[in-house]
Each structure stands twice: as structure tokens, then as C-alpha cells.
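**User:** Here is a favour to ask of a fellow structure person. Please take any protein you like and set down a full record of it. No explanation is needed for now; the record alone will do.

**Assistant:**
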Amino acid sequence: MTPGSLQGLSGRRKFLGLAAAGAATTVLAPGIHLIEVAQAAPSAAASATVRWGLLIDTTRCASGCTDCVSACSRENGLSGGTRPTDSQWIRKVEIKEIKTGRSASLPVMCQHCAEPPCVDVCPTGASFKRADGIVLVDRHTCIGCRYCVMACPYQARSFVHEPVVDQKPDVPRGKGCVEGCTLCVHRIDQGGGPACVEACDKAGHHAMLFGDLNNPSSEISRRVRELASVQLRADLKLDPGVRYQGL
């Protein structure tokens, strides 16, 4: 290839790059552009020194109790799964050991895996993992293909089938997008914790513990070290950030 052709190729690449950047400036609302959203996506609060996670004590989780589910719906503006097409970011699951007959009730949500398959299969990068381990969906780049829904072994993602009204300011949602548990990232970035954990504690159950799995001094790390806990589908080696005791 001649120097002239190389220069022409470089020029075309530069042009395509500028064109792509220009396309990304599509206006979402007055004063808001996609390129600004993309640049602002990595939160200043997210740090690789932290890995947020949950520890759920199934011995304290009562069958029929839906305090965590209701709290999630209220916090994130969800309908509560009253219809098959409704989004539900956390659900209660009843399991039973066939050999012993022992049963347990447990909440299941996005497991915020260290190796999330939803991120691997996403063709646009809309599914991504923050530095602090929280797995999210960028609704501005989600094309609704639902590859991530099929890839998730925990059935923890929902597709928004209908227009969304009365949205919560901190929880943007939209028709045609995939969504799931965010660990209430908007609360975490303000120094708080997930609404489900708060509701569980307020009701006196204390079945859910939120904290930094990377901090050996944190309560969640101490309990994971000292008490037996399991990861759902540990055989898949996804290293979920949600752990369960009593299973």
C-alpha cells in the first residue's frame, strides 16, 4: 500500500470517527446529549477497591414475606409484577430439598457477577459492570435485543414492553429496554444502601446484609468468612456478589 493510500485510509477512518461522534450527540432532552451521557456513565463513586454485595440469611427469610419485593417496587417505580409482562427486579423463590424435604424461601435478583454473562453477550455494550462490581444497563445504548435476558442463568432481567409513566427521577426507565436490579445504585452513590435491605431490617427480619465484600473488616466479609454461605449456580464460575446462608 502506497503512502498516499495510507493517508487516504487514515483520513476515512478519521471521518468515520467524527461521523460516529456526531451521531452520538442525538438530543435526548433539552440540553442532554448521548455523548454527554456516555462520558458521564462511569460514576465518580465507583472504585475498584470496593465490591458491593449482599448476604442473605435464608433462615430468617419467611415464606410468603414480600417486604423486600414491595420495597424494590416502591423505590424504583415498578408495578410489582402484577402482570406477566411487568418488570420485577427481585422475586421470592421457594425451594425444597428432595431428599430431606427441607424447604427455604429466598429473594433472587441480579447476582452482580464478577464474570457477568449478560455483559459478554451484549452487542452494544449497554450491559456493563461498574468498577465496584455493580452490573447495570445503559438504557441509552440498549437496543432491546434481549440477548442478556437469555444469557442470565438467574432469570433476573426484565424487558419493558409498554411506555413508562410516573418515573422516579433517580431511576430512568424506558419502553424497549432491558432492566434489572441495580442494588439501588442511586442510593449507594449517595452513601446509602438498597431499599430491600432497609425494608427487611425495618420489618425486624434482618435477613439481608449489604456491604463491601473487598473490605475484610466489613460485617458482610466477616460473616462470609466465619459462616458457611453459597453462591447460586457456583458451578458456572460467575462469582456472584450475592451470597446465601442456610441453603
Observations:
- The first strand starts at residue 27 and ends at 29.
- Residues 5-43 have pLDDT under 50 and may be disordered.
- The domain at 52-245 is CATH 3.30.70.20 (Alpha-Beta Plaits).
